[in-house]
Design a protein that fits this description.
The complex is a heterodimer.
Chain A lengths: L24 E4 L5 E6 L5 E8 L11 H8 L9 H9 L4 E6 L4 E8 L3 H14 L4 H18 L3 H14 L11 H5 L3 H13 L3 E7 L5 H8 L24 E4 L7 E10 L7 H13 L4 H9 L3 E8 L6 E10 L3 H17 L4 H18 L3 H13 L4 H13 L2 H11 L6 E5 L1
Parallel strand pairs in A: 2-6, 7-11
Antiparallel strand pairs in A: 1-2, 3-5, 3-6, 4-5, 8-10, 8-11, 9-10
Helix pairs in contact in A: 1-7, 9-14, 9-15, 10-11, 11-15
Chain B lengths: L4 E4 L5 E6 L5 E8 L13 H8 L11 H6 L3 E6 L4 E8 L3 H13 L5 H20 L6 H9 L14 H5 L3 H11 L5 E7 L3 H12 L22 E7 L5 E7 L8 H12 L5 H9 L3 E8 L7 E8 L5 H17 L4 H18 L3 H14 L8 H6 L3 H11 L5 E8 L3
Parallel strand pairs in B: 2-6, 7-11
Antiparallel strand pairs in B: 1-2, 3-5, 3-6, 4-5, 8-10, 8-11, 9-10
The chains are: A alpha+beta, B alpha+beta.
Chain lengths: ~425, ~425
């Protein structure tokens, strides 16, 4: 029998998949630091992430939090920055650090067989970073140059401004760096911040991969003996001050051939009941390759290489954003098409076929997202830091499976109204 | 050690299967043995434009993405100077959907005029976003043209000029498709929660009926040995000066390949590397610097590039880089330093192999090189590299006559 290629093979609907978030182990070190661990994976590699409550929400002077995080591996009382780096790199280990709004992290990727050789150095960084003056000078100088370069890029400017409009320049979610903020950093600022928020700070540990046999005692020896979690660290309250003007057009480079477009509105955090169903609406709108924005503005009109909408994942309050770079002559048309797509979602019920496709896509990707030890611990980390439980995981799946076109339309009428959005084009 | 099974269909399609039952997912990866280097010099950017057109519907299926998404899958593709690679990941139970979609677009595209028209525009926007509307965006275009006189690595995958993409016709598209997108010019790799016997049946069913094409005999102009240092001055509206140097190096099959790779690590891999320590930290001449190589199949380029600290002259910066490079030729490395870069490479390989997606792409790439089993021999090859081999490799590469330099000046500085 000849093969009929017009007929799709049968599929199992992703909504029927049994998607499980594998549990992680939890234990507490001698100093009270909690460890969340997921053991697994075929490769003999592992990840250890120390999460400190040291994000930029805690700083009282701009950029002290990211600078402290960045420079804490640039020297201890016994090792130069070079020696610290070499101590990790000799064993093929990678030490990274990242600063976010509420938290700041130190993460170590290592071969399992070398973990015991490198964890003492991580411990040393938490106990004994010294922030040499010279390292701060080089950092400030090079960051200023990097900033000068980034300020030439329309997308970089657009990302800064849209956050500022939404949250205000003094809010941790809205602030950004300037030449002045780098120049004003002092070694004392960093040392004080480090002492308070790292050395004697509050920390949670996340582990994933294949562990050496005596992992708990190793962790206790090198992390469990540090003076962490002794003091209460209170998250300061920051007022959101949103811009009053809604629409902006900025010329950064008159010879630019494209414009960076950002269209954004406030949105509640993950604890709000609309967060999960809004993810479905977002996917229909602009959340994946088959979304309406992508189909219309890229695949039908060719105005852009890509257009996306997404919900930010801030802990306290988030935003819903549309982001794209489009040809200079079609920026206005692109913006009006975005609003047209919002209007269609407000006015018309989404077709059940389209909704089912989006549901399948979302659950299929979720199945892939909770596959692999690093991905699994990453999800647990996000839940723990957001104060949600695994119930959230199953509730979200349930919402995606059951949400109906009427609810999608209602959500669009609540959240996708042109007048609520900030709009920015940077040329 | 990545285990796999291999078989070939009558039409010449090579199939590799790597089962992994620890995941609920599967990856279907198809590598076509065609890259930007195979393009007509008057019609560059075609391999990459083609990658876009492959999502514009096939002969029996109007839309590629939609049925895949319905099956819970995701996909993407990329084009390099050497190859074009398509991959999708989906729940293993729905793997037949991927076979259906991939085989239909190998059978024939729909060749819709609308798709061509739109994707030409999309690629032009991509060109603008990455290569025009971006500081230093044209640097690689200029460097390739400077370094290569003959070999088609002289243009980038996006194309030598926007005009080539804008002028692509449907005739060009069809010719390109039926020349390169044939089963005997492709490698199919399936990884994840699958059984080889099931994949055999699916491969026969969906790909078996596709006729083979005329075998492609690649006959590219080879780059003659460069006899003297070449340089180019550029002045543009960028905030700081940039120095970019390249040297011709051996290809993927060259005996020096692994030593060359380690050499880039010694010089530019991470914050304990020589260029970072000496030129950013100690001498403070550069605000950023990197060292890497093309990793291409034919002889590629060894690259050192960095942005200068404001106030530092180009000649001082250049001299400093060359001093570090000279050291590699005249001093034998400490065994510990070589051990470090081998350890880093081991670690990189282990982390890369974590996902079934990466394993699929590596298997396909090594099969293109001649044998997927080579993938499992890589680490051993790195481990045989000694300080003396690195030194002799450095001597060969870092001949001044073999160098190309782009002096990229800021108009404002």
């Amino acid at each position: 029998m000849a093969l009929d290629r017009t007929i799709a093979p049968n599929i199992k609907d992703a909504v029927d998949f049994d998607i499980q978030l594998k549990p992680c182990q939890k234990y507490v070190l001698d100093n009270g630091v909690e460890v969340y661990a997921f053991e697994g994976g075929a490769q003999e590699v592992m990840l250890m992430e120390l999460v400190f409550f040291a994000g930029n929400s805690y700083e009282t002077k701009n950029w002290v939090a990211p600078a402290t995080n960045y420079l804490l591996k640039n020297g201890t009382s016994t090792k130069s920055a070079f020696e610290v780096n070499e101590a990790f790199e000799f064993y093929g280990a990678y030490l990274n650090r990242s600063c976010y709004n509420e938290t700041a992290t130190i993460s170590l990727h290592s071969l399992t067989k070398h973990f015991a050789e490198v964890i003492p150095v991580v411990s040393e960084l938490v106990a004994d970073a010294v922030f040499p003056e010279k390292e701060l000078d080089i950092y400030a100088k090079n960051q200023i140059q990097q900033l000068t370069l980034n300020l030439k890029k329309a997308d970089f400017i657009a990302n800064r401004f849209i956050d500022e409009y939404l949250f205000g320049i003094d809010h941790p979610y809205g602030k950004y760096s300037s030449e002045e903020s780098y120049n004003q950093l002092t070694r004392d600022d960093l040392v004080n911040y480090y002492n308070k928020f790292y050395k004697e700070g509050k920390c949670i540990v996340f582990m994933a991969g294949q562990f050496p046999a005596n992992i708990e005692s190793i962790l206790n020896k090198y992390i469990g003996t540090l003076p962490l979690n002794k003091k209460d660290i209170v998250l300061p309250a920051h007022q959101i001050v949103s811009a009053t003007q809604k629409k902006y057009s900025v010329v950064n480079d008159p010879s630019s051939v494209q414009g960076s477009i950002r269209i954004a509105r406030h949105f509640p955090n993950r604890h709000h009941p609309d967060f999960a169903p809004a993810q479905v609406l977002n996917n229909i709108f602009g959340g994946f390759f088959g979304s309406r924005l992508m189909s219309n503005i890229r695949e039908d009109k060719g105005y852009t290489y890509g257009i996306h909408s997404y919900l930010q994942t801030h802990i306290q309050q988030t935003a819903w954003l549309v982001s794209t770079d489009a040809g200079k002559d079609v920026c206005t048309a692109t913006v009006s098409e975005v609003y047209k797509e919002m209007a269609i979602l407000r006015d018309e019920l989404v077709d059940i076929e389209e909704l089912n496709l989006v549901k399948n896509y979302m659950l299929g990707s979720l199945l892939g997202d909770v596959d692999g030890p690093f991905q699994i611990i990453g999800r647990w980390k996000s839940y723990i830091l957001n104060g949600i439980t695994e119930e959230y995981f199953y509730n979200t799946i349930h919402t995606v499976r059951t949400v109906q076109p009427e609810q999608i339309k209602d959500l669009a009428n609540t959240y996708l109204k042109e007048e609520d959005f900030y709009e920015l084009v940077v040329y | 050690m990545i285990q796999f099974d291999r078989f070939e269909l009558a039409n010449g399609l090579k199939v590799l299967v790597h089962p992994d039952t620890t995941t609920p997912m599967a990856v279907v990866n198809i590598l076509y043995n065609v890259g930007a280097k195979d393009e007509n010099p008057e019609k560059t950017g075609f391999a990459h434009l083609f990658e876009h057109l492959m999502f514009g519907g096939s002969v029996n299926i109007p839309e590629y993405d939609e049925p895949l998404q319905r099956a819970g899958g995701e996909n993407n593709a990329y084009t390099t100077n050497d190859l074009t690679n398509y991959y999708c990941q989906l729940p293993a139970e729905n793997i037949e959907t991927a076979f259906w979609l991939e085989s239909d677009r190998m059978l024939s595209l729909a060749f819709s005029p609308k798709s061509l028209e739109v994707q030409r525009k999309v690629v032009c926007e991509e060109f603008k976003e990455h290569y025009i509307n971006k500081p230093y965006g044209d640097a690689w275009h200029k460097m390739r043209t400077l370094a290569y006189t003959q070999h088609p690595y002289k243009w980038m995958t996006i194309g030598a000029s926007l005009a080539h993409v804008e002028q692509a016709t449907m005739e060009d598209v069809k010719d390109f498709f039926f020349q390169f997108y044939r089963p005997n010019n492709a490698i199919l790799v399936v990884t994840g929660n699958v059984k080889t016997e099931d994949i055999k049946l699916l491969a026969e069913k969906w790909f078996g009926p596709i006729p083979a094409g005329v075998p492609y005999k690649r006959n590219l102009p080879q780059e003659p040995k460069q006899l003297k240092h070449k340089s180019l001055d550029v002045r543009a509206d960028v905030p700081m000066d940039m120095l970019m140097m390249t040297w011709h190096m051996g290809g993927r099959f060259d005996a020096s390949y692994h030593a060359t790779d380690l050499l880039t690590e010694v010089l530019g891999g991470g914050a304990s590397s020589r260029l970072y320590e000496q030129l950013i930290k100690v001498r403070q001449l550069f605000s950023s610097i990197s060292c890497f190589h093309f990793g291409t199949i034919d002889p590629g380029l060894f690259v050192i590039t960095g942005k200068l600290v404001k106030g530092i002259s180009m000649s001082v910066a250049e001299k400093a880089v060359l001093e570090e490079v000279e050291k590699m030729k005249h001093e034998i490395l400490d065994a510990k330093e070589v051990q470090k870069v081998i350890n880093k490479t081991e670690s990189m390989i282990c982390f890369e192999d974590m996902s079934i997606m990466n394993r699929a792409q590596s298997l396909a790439f090594y099969e293109l090189l001649g044998d997927a089993a080579l993938m499992n021999e890589e680490l051993a090859k790195y481990q045989t590299v000694t300080p003396a081999i690195i030194q002799s490799t450095a001597k060969t590469i870092f001949e001044d006559s073999n160098r190309n330099t782009l002096y990229y000046y800021s108009k404002t500085s």
